[in-house]
Amino acid sequence: MVTTRKPRALPKNGLRSEGQSLLWRVRGSIDDIARATGAGRQSVHNWRSGALVPSPRWRARLEEMYAIPVRAWVLTPSATGPANEVEKPEVPPDPPAAPATPPPGTLEGALALHARVCAAAAVPGLTAAERVKLSDTEAKVLALRHRLEREAQMVEARIIREHPRWRAVRQAIATAIAGCPRCTKLVADALMRLDV
User: Fold this and answer.
1) Is residue 17 within 8 Å of residue 72, measured between CB atoms?
2) Confidence (pTM)
3) Cβ count near 103 (within 10 Å)
4) 129/53 Cα distance (integer angstroms)
5) Which terminal Cβ of the chain has fewer Cβ within 10 Å, N or C?
């Protein structure tokens, strides 16, 4: 539950969102809010002043600690009164964080990562900056997927070319058609179309 405090001067740039307005009304200093949420002092200052919007993770934490709805950060400020009178919407899940580990080295891993990025982009209430980051991540994942698919095709072709059975078949074909230049050309053209 949010407790209100004595009114004080609003930020110089005005209130940019309902979330900022509700955080502005929270009793306590920036240090108190930072300690309660586990966020950095500068982050809380930026949220309260309207310089930045909290990430989905911090929005959920602010809702947990001060009943500031997650969606409030994307709504324009209103004159609805104290923060505890605001209707509490359903909390969307946090988008998955970008993996801190190197990109997956398998095509299956790249496909799974792409699915997670697409799911994260579908979460409602993302800020423009979050959407840009997800778009950049998706572009990188798609490039990785393309590279892995191309490498898989190259490996498959190399395996076929170097397979002992294929070498024996190729030698048998070459021996059988050696006396017929027209046959040699037809077989060579057919093999070129097959990319082997």
Assistant:
1) yes
2) 0.39
3) 15
4) 10
5) N
What contacts 154, CB < 8 A, 6 or more positions away?
A: none
pLDDT digits (tens, 9 = 90+) for 8-61: 566 666 788 888 888 888 888 899 999 988 899 999 988 888 888 898 889 989
For the chain, the structural domain boundaries read 18-85, 102-153, 163-196
| Residue tagged 């949420």 (tokens) | 37
Q: What are phi and psi of 173, to 5 degrees?
A: -65, -45
Nearest to 135 by CA among 149, 147, 121: 121
What sign has the CA pseudo-torsion 166, 172, 176, 178? positive
| Structure token digits, residue 38 | 């586990």
Report which residue type is found at 64. Answer: E
The structure tokens listed for 135 are: 């778009």
Q: What is the fold of 18-85?
A: 434 Repressor (Amino-terminal Domain) (1.10.260)
pLDDT tens digits, 144-165:
888 888 888 888 777 877 888 8
Residues 6+ apart with CB under 8 A from 112: 104
